[in-house]
C-alpha cells in the first residue's frame, strides 16, 4: 500500500535528507524581536479566570490556591495578592521556607544546582512544575516536566523563556505591577539570548538545537494562550511565525542527515518532543488557512524518523502518534495539489489510498499495546455513572483514536469535497462523537492530551442540533471548569460565528458522486476564507 502511494505522489513521503541541502540555508530570523519591548504592556486587557471558593484549579492547570494575608491563609479570592499553591497536598511555594523543589516529583535532588533564581523566580519555577506540568499529559513521559525542565536548567535562553511563560499564567492569579515587569524582563532577556543563538552556526548542527527550539516553543506557546494580546487578525500570528522558524531549525539540525533511511534515524527524547509539538502546531493550523502548495509541500521530514512501530506510538505532548499527524499534513497537501490542478486523477487515487490506511488505524503507548479496531477499543471501556471512562489508559487511547475519524472527515470534506450531510462524513462523525462523549472534560484525567483539534473538526462537521450539542457541551464544560487561560476561548467564539455562517450564508450545491472531484464545490475553502476574515488564523493546540 505504502509503495503504491509513494509511486503515485512521492512528495507525500519523507526521505532521508540530503547533506548538501542542509548547507544552503541562511540563519533563521528571530520572529519574537518585534514583541520584546513590552510583552505585557498592561494588565487591563487580561481576561482573568474566575476561581472557585475552594481555590481549586483543575483544568489545563492543576493546583489548589491559598490566598496569603499576613500569617493567615484564606480561601482564594477574585483579587489575589501573594499566593501559595498546592499539588496533591504538598505546599511547594518558597513562602513555606522549606527547601526549593520539595515535594516536586520527577526531579533529581540537585536539579537546581547552578541556577541563580531569587525567591520570586523560584515560585515561578515551582508553578511550572507543580501546576502547569500535571495538566499537560497523562502518560509518564511528560515532555514539559522532563525534557523542557532539564534543558532549562542548563540553557539560559530556555530558562528565561520558561519563567516568562510561567509568569504569563501567574499574572492571572497575582496581577501585580511587580509580576508584570518580571514577565517582561524574562521575555525580553529570552528574546535577546535567542537572537544571539540564532546567529551562531553551531545552533544548527545536529544535537545542538534543543535549547533554542524549547525556548521558541515556550515563547510561541505564550502567544497562543495570551490570546487577548495577539496581533490583529489581519496579520500573521506571532505563534505561527514562531512555529515556522522552529521548523526551519528542526530541518537544519535533522539527525536524518546521518542516515541513509529515515527508519534508521535515532533521536533524543527532547528532539522527539520538540518535533511533535512544532509539527502539531503547524499541521493543526493548515485546515483553517488558505491552501497553498508552497506552504504544504514541506511534509515534516523529521516527524517519521525511526521505525514504523515508533511512528505509531502515542506521544503525550500531542496526544496522538506522529504517523497520524503526518497523514493530516498529507491530506492538506493533496487538497493543495487538487486546487492547483482540478483535473488531476492522481490526487483522488492517492486520497482513496489514504482512506484505506485510516481503516483500523493502530496506535500504542507505553501504557497500552493498543487495539485492533475501534470496536475493540469501545468494548474495552468501562463507563462511570456519567458515561465517562475513568482510567488514564482508556482516556489516552480514546483521545488518540478520536484523531482517526477526524482525519477521515477532513479527507472527505476538503479533498473529496463531500458535504457535511454525506454518509461517509456522518459515519466518521458518529465515531468521533462516541469518543468525545466518553472523555472527561474536567478533573484529574483532563489534560492537554484531550482532543481539542478533533473536537474543532467535529464542530465544523456538525449541522444537526444533537451533534452540535456535543461540541457545545465540551466547550462550555472546558471553559466553565478550567479556571485557567488556554487557547480554547477564541476558538469557541469562532465556532459559534461559523455555525451561523454555515447555516445562513453557505450556498451548498447538490452533490454528484459521478462528478469529477476537481469540479465539485470546494466549500471548505469558502469556509476557511470566512473564518480567517472573521477570526484570523486559529491555533488549534
UniProtKB/TrEMBL annotation:
It comes from Lasiosphaeria ovina. Its main location: nucleus. Keywords: DNA-binding, Nucleus, Transcription, Transcription regulation, Zinc. Coiled coil: none annotated. One of its GO terms (molecular function) is DNA binding. The keyword DNA-binding applies. InterPro entries: Fun_TF (IPR021858). This is Fungal-specific transcription factor domain-containing protein. PANTHER family: TRANSCRIPTIONAL ACTIVATOR PROTEIN UGA3, ZN(II)2CYS6 TRANSCRIPTION FACTOR (EUROFUNG). GO terms for cellular component: nucleus. It holds the Pfam family Fungal_trans_2. It is found in: Nucleus.
Amino acid at each position: 500500500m505504502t509503495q503504491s502511494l509513494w509511486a503515485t505522489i512521492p512528495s507525500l513521503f519523507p526521505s532521508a535528507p540530503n547533506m548538501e541541502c542542509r548547507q544552503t540555508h541562511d540563519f533563521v530570523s528571530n520572529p519574537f524581536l518585534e514583541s520584546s519591548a513590552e510583552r505585557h504592556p498592561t494588565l487591563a486587557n487580561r481576561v482573568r479566570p474566575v476561581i472557585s471558593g475552594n481555590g481549586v484549579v483543575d483544568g489545563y492547570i492543576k493546583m489548589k490556591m491559598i490566598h496569603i494575608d499576613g500569617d493567615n491563609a484564606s480561601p482564594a479570592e477574585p483579587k489575589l495578592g501573594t499566593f501559595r499553591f498546592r499539588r496533591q497536598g504538598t505546599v511547594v511555594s518558597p513562602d513555606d521556607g522549606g527547601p526549593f523543589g520539595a515535594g516536586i516529583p520527577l526531579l533529581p535532588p540537585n536539579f537546581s544546582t547552578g541556577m541563580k533564581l531569587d525567591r520570586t523566580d523560584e515560585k515561578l519555577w515551582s508553578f511550572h512544575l507543580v501546576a502547569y506540568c500535571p495538566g499537560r499529559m497523562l502518560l509518564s513521559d511528560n515532555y514539559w516536566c522532563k525534557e523542557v525542565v532539564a534543558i532549562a536548567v542548563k540553557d539560559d535562553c530556555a530558562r528565561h523563556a520558561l519563567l516568562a511563560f510561567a509568569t504569563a499564567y501567574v499574572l492571572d492569579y497575582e496581577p501585580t505591577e511587580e509580576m508584570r515587569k518580571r514577565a517582561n524582563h524574562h521575555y525580553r532577556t529570552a528574546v535577546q539570548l535567542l537572537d544571539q543563538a540564532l546567529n551562531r552556526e553551531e545552533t544548527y548542527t545536529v544535537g545542538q538545537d534543543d535549547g533554542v527550539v524549547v525556548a521558541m516553543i515556550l515563547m510561541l506557546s505564550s502567544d497562543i494562550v495570551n490570546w487577548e494580546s495577539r496581533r490583529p487578525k489581519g496579520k500573521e500570528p506571532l505563534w505561527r511565525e514562531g512555529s515556522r522558524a522552529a521548523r526551519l531549525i528542526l530541518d537544519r539540525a535533522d539527525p536524518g542527515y546521518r542516515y541513509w533511511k529515515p527508519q534508521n534515524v535515532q533521536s533524543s527524547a527532547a528532539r522527539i518532543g520538540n518535533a511533535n509539538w512544532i509539527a502539531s502546531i503547524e499541521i493543526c493550523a493548515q485546515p483553517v488557512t488558505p491552501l497553498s502548495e508552497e506552504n504544504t509541500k514541506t511534509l515534516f521530514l523529521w516527524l517519521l524518523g525511526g521505525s514504523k512501530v515508533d511512528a505509531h506510538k502515542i506521544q503525550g505532548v500531542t496526544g496522538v502518534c506522529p504517523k497520524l499527524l503526518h497523514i493530516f499534513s498529507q491530506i492538506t497537501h493533496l487538497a493543495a495539489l487538487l486546487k492547483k490542478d482540478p483535473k488531476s486523477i492522481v490526487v483522488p487515487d492517492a486520497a482513496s489510498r489514504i482512506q484505506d490506511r485510516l481503516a483500523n488505524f493502530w496506535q500504542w503507548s507505553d501504557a497500552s499495546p493498543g487495539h485492533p479496531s475501534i470496536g475493540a477499543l469501545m468494548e474495552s471501556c468501562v463507563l462511570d455513572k456519567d458515561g465517562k471512562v475513568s482510567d488514564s489508559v482508556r482516556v489516552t487511547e480514546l483521545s488518540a483514536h478520536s484523531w482517526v475519524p477526524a482525519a477521515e472527515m477532513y479527507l472527505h470534506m476538503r479533498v473529496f469535497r463531500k458535504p457535511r450531510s454525506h454518509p461517509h462524513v456522518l459515519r466518521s462523525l458518529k465515531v468521533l462523537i462516541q469518543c468525545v462523549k466518553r472523555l472527561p472534560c474536567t478533573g484529574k484525567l483532563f489534560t492537554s492530551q484531550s482532543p481539542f483539534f478533533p473536537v474543532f473538526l467535529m464542530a465544523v462537521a456538525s449541522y444537526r442540533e444533537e451533534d452540535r450539542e456535543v461540541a457545545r457541551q465540551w466547550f462550555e464544560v472546558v471553559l466553565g471548569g478550567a479556571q485557567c487561560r488556554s487557547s480554547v476561548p477564541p476558538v469557541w467564539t469562532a465556532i459559534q460565528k461559523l455555525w451561523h455562517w454555515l447555516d445562513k450564508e453557505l450556498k451548498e450545491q447538490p452533490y454528484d458522486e459521478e462528478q469529477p472531484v476537481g469540479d465539485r464545490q470546494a466549500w471548505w475553502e469558502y469556509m476557511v476564507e470566512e473564518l480567517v476574515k472573521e477570526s484570523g488564523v486559529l491555533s488549534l493546540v
